[in-house]
């Protein structure tokens, strides 16, 4: 489902904001890329978030995220509503990217507020909406590369949107590189959620997001990362995912349908893994 044209135009009002036209509020997130602050448009009182990064890898990832998001238009993908680049007196660049505010925070935040784990009925609802987002991304030639609860946002009405596109890649760029992401050091994403073929650097495709979706379902059902019960050493876990023949342990409380869904997502052979269209 696409965002109506009028709403899209209204949202783009932030695109031309000057530094004196908005005010930065409290810190709501941070990471290796930089920071995320709540912000307000002083003319309208509207809330949004501003994601900021300075020169370096964080700036490059944020530029990549902004470029990809500016080309997208879906209810199930967080909206980028503008950006500006500032250059300091020392020549350092700072990029601000304006995005819609998701009042519910991440799925990880929300699960923590409700006891750490989610009931299967809620997991099904959220998974269905994540699949809407993945189907849209894949139809537009984009691999997200980092699906997990922290990168899925929730608005107060319960709608789910896929976010955090700093690791995302366009499939045509992957194919021009021989179908792989590059060297081990260039791999992006979160290892415990990564597909085996990605960790082996054998290929990155839409199927990689489906494996990560399966890991995210496990995360929602258990409140813990996938593989956490089996391997305490992260390096050993990566080796087990990449070189073993196992799948992460399925939550015991899931229904037969839930287990069947996970089996389709967590098929080790990416060619046999179900697509977002088939799972929908």
Automatic annotation (TrEMBL):
Q: Does the keyword Transferase apply?
A: yes
Which InterPro entries does the UniProt entry name for this protein? Kinase-like_dom_sf (IPR011009), Plant_MAPKKK (IPR052751), Prot_kinase_dom (IPR000719), Protein_kinase_ATP_BS (IPR017441), Ser/Thr_kinase_AS (IPR008271)
Name any one GO molecular function: ATP binding
Spell out the Gene3D superfamilies in the cross-references.
Transferase(Phosphotransferase) domain 1
Gene Ontology BP annotations: signal transduction
Pfam families per UniProt = Pkinase
Keyword Transferase listed: yes
What SMART domains does this protein map onto?
Answer: S_TKc (SM00220)
- Residues annotated as binding ATP are 51
Keywords from UniProt, A to Z, are: ATP-binding, Kinase, Nucleotide-binding, Serine/threonine-protein kinase, Transferase
Residues forming the Protein kinase domain are 22-280
Family listed: Belongs to the protein kinase superfamily.
This protein is called Protein kinase domain-containing protein
From the broadest rank down, the organism's phylogenetic lineage runs: Eukaryota, Viridiplantae, Streptophyta, Embryophyta, Tracheophyta
């Amino acid at each position: 489902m696409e965002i109506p044209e009028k709403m899209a135009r209204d949202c783009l009002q932030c695109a031309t904001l000057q530094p004196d036209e908005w005010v930065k509020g409290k810190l709501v997130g941070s990471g290796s890329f930089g920071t995320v602050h709540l912000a307000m448009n002083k003319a309208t009182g509207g809330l949004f978030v501003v994601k900021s990064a300075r020169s370096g890898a964080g700036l490059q990832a944020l530029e990549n995220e902004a470029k990809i998001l500016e080309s997208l238009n879906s209810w199930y993908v967080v909206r980028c509503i503008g950006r500006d680049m500032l250059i300091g007196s020392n020549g350092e660049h700072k990029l601000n990217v304006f995005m819609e505010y998701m009042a519910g925070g991440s799925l990880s935040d929300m699960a923590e507020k409700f006891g750490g784990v989610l009931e299967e009925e809620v997991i099904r609802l959220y998974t269905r909406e994540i699949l809407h987002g993945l189907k849209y991304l894949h139809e537009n030639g984009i691999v997200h590369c980092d699906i997990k609860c922290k990168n899925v946002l929730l608005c107060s009405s319960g709608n789910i949107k896929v976010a955090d596109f700093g690791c995302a890649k366009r499939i045509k760029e992957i194919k021009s590189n021989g179908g792989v992401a590059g060297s081990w050091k260039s791999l992006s994403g979160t290892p415990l959620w990564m597909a085996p073929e990605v960790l082996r650097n054998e290929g990155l495709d839409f199927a990689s997001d489906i494996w990560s979706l399966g890991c995210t379902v496990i995360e929602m059902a258990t409140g813990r990362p996938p593989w956490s019960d089996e391997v305490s050493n992260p390096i050993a876990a990566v080796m087990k995912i990449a070189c073993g023949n196992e799948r992460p342990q399925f939550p015991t409380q899931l229904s037969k349908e839930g287990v069947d869904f996970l089996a389709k997502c967590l098929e080790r052979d990416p060619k046999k893994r179900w697509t977002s269209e088939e799972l929908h």
